[in-house]
Amino acid sequence: MSSRFRTIAEDLGSAARAGLLETPHGTVETPAFMPVASQGTVKALTHAQVESVGAQIILVNSYHLSLRPGVEAVEAMGGLHTYISWPRPILTDSGGFQIYSLSPLVQVSDEGVRFASHLDGSRVFLTPEDAVDLQARMGADILMCLDYFPAYPYAEETMAEAVRLTTAWARRARERFARTDGPQQLWGISQGGVSPGLRRRSIEELVALEFPGYAYGGLGIGEPKTRLLEVLETGNTLFPRTKPRYLMGMGYIEDILEAVERGVDLFDCVLPTRNARNGTLFTSRGRVSIKNVKYARDPRPLDESCACYTCQNFSRAYLRHLFERQEMSSAVLNTIHNLHFYLDIFRRIRHSIESNSFPILKKSIISKETEKEEPT
Amino acid sequence: MSSRFRTIAEDLGSAARAGLLETPHGTVETPAFMPVASQGTVKALTHAQVESVGAQIILVNSYHLSLRPGVEAVEAMGGLHTYISWPRPILTDSGGFQIYSLSPLVQVSDEGVRFASHLDGSRVFLTPEDAVDLQARMGADILMCLDYFPAYPYAEETMAEAVRLTTAWARRARERFARTDGPQQLWGISQGGVSPGLRRRSIEELVALEFPGYAYGGLGIGEPKTRLLEVLETGNTLFPRTKPRYLMGMGYIEDILEAVERGVDLFDCVLPTRNARNGTLFTSRGRVSIKNVKYARDPRPLDESCACYTCQNFSRAYLRHLFERQEMSSAVLNTIHNLHFYLDIFRRIRHSIESNSFPILKKSIISKETEKEEPT
């Protein structure tokens, strides 16, 4: 398999790198953030708006779409890109995360995972091969292996078993995928939580299987931050530098910066979009809770330094009014801003790596305390 | 007051005319349709999307905005246009319709109307002068007089009293408005239901007061269609041809065409936007209820002949999926389409009047039965 990822710049003082990830639907500049389009739509936005904020790739949940409308329907419509009319790259997850977090009655065996649909309780059985077939039929650009992980906190032996299963499933997924002859790529997901030995074992076993990309799974579920950083450092030494690395589901800007510094290339998270709908907005000066009455007559944009459609056109007072009236355009305008804010940080991250100033950028963003409330 | 409306083309065989309505925020080509932005936003759309479908003027409810955020807040923010960041013309209604339809405990006297806020039950008293002041302070381009009308069906003497009050209030509103020295304009609203004598009296009394524009109020609330058409014919003979006429709140395409034929220039209705959110979509071949299972694998756009963003990019199958998943983008894409459909019909109406083919256009649109379900 020819390499479809190449590094174009490396930070001198850390493992941060800027790269290009080629897919059948275009090239993604990394480090990249994928807005989450669970049901084939980034919540509240049109695709045109998603493109306008600078998204180059989106994440679609194969679990949701396989339940409704079903893989047959997506396939009959010409595949995922045609069905949802998104012409750029798509990564689908295997459904593992949704199964373990949404479904009742989950039973995991060597063969696969049996669970009840969270919609109607009907019993579903999914093997690692099924997860590959399903995603391949949908036609995503990047497919993810079915993995398994227990909830945090977990017993060491439970996690050891999860790592064993995840590797075994990854091998079967790899074999199944090898039969396909398409331009798609299948990435492996490492598990092991924050247990150094188990994460190391998981990564080494995956690397031996030679995937074109690798993910950190099962993180951001309550583990201490220092342990998370240790995992990323371990991964940075073990994953081949020629392959892209994806930190699944983690969206705090600080964590993203730490992860980029440790060689991570790809991210996804519902944080910016979900927070937008809840009225929590990110700005270069900190968080804004737009429902606060202090914004009722505030003529300023959310963020003076932001070039998004929302900040270029609307006041905090109007945004508060829309939020309070529960107008859908509140969710739309807020989501445009939060996603633009995120994607702009990624643009700046890439630029800083190319111009050898990533540590300065990281420090300046973290010192502005973007996770905290905007100072008055 | 210099004329701010001029006719640029007249249909030879009917009273239909195309005109230009000048306002401080730009010129509106008539016949025109105003999307309804009750709370200062067309539901589900950004202003950019409202402009992209071709809207030249929107209607904002002064009733809603005067309760929340309040006229002081709107004024403090620089007026309605600045507050909501809509740079084009705005017409505000007086609140009459909202008061009679939303508020409990409405008491109408010669002085004005006393009602309970539909939000918190607090008692509000609104005079015709208040309604003018409130709209003038908000800064709309076109203000409407406070009117009064009873629910349909009504006793003749009840309507006679409503006409008397509406004229008396219009006179007071006119006097109050005469004190302002701005570029805004205040229009009168006729009442009288479908009673020929009362509607005639109402119109004649209003015309004597010399407003720069006139509306038909209290229609589209259950009266027979033939009676409605009679009212429009009466109005067409009584309203000066030099002034614009506005049929309030009526949105069926057939009724709009009949009204244009009888000299009406301006319309507003929640029909296209509300129906969009409920999944009922207008097409050149008839109505489509997008939730119907028959669209689950339908790769066609809603309307093959439509140039809107939705039809240019998405299939019925995807639109059905979004509707079924209750995604906000369903409301967004559906509203873009329905509004584009309406505003496109208005573009065609204007063009047909200018090219002397309005009767042909009217016949062709009505024969396509846009109000009925699309044939299979």
Please provide a written account of the structure.
Chain A has 376 residues and is an alpha/beta fold. In chain A, 43% of the residues lie in helices and 17% in strands. Chain A contains 14 helices and 16 strands. Chain A has helices at 47-52, 62-76, 80-84, 96-102, 128-138, 156-178, 196-209, 225-238, 253-261, 271-277, 309-313, 316-324, 328-354, 358-367, and strands at residues 5-10, 17-23, 26-30, 32-34, 58-61, 90-93, 107-108, 113-116, 123-126, 142-144, 185-190, 214-216, 245-247, 266-268, 280-283, 286-289. In chain A, strands 4-14-13-12-11-10-6-5 form an 8-stranded parallel β-sheet. Chain A has a 3-stranded antiparallel β-sheet with strand order 1-2-3. In chain A, strands 7-8-9 form a 3-stranded antiparallel β-sheet. In chain A, a hairpin with a 6-residue loop joins strand 8 (113-116) and strand 9. In chain A, helix 10 runs antiparallel to helix 13 (328-354) and helix 13 (328-354) runs antiparallel to helix 14 (358-367). The longest helix of chain A is centred in the last third of the chain and has 27 residues, at 328-354. In chain A, 52% of the residues are buried. Chain A binds chain B through residues 39-48, 68-69, 73, 76-78, 83-85, 296-297, 299, 309, 313-315, 317-318, 321-322, 324-325, 327-329, 331-333, and chain B through 39-48, 68-69, 73, 76-78, 83-85, 296-297, 299, 309, 313-315, 317-318, 321-322, 324-325, 327-329, 331-333.
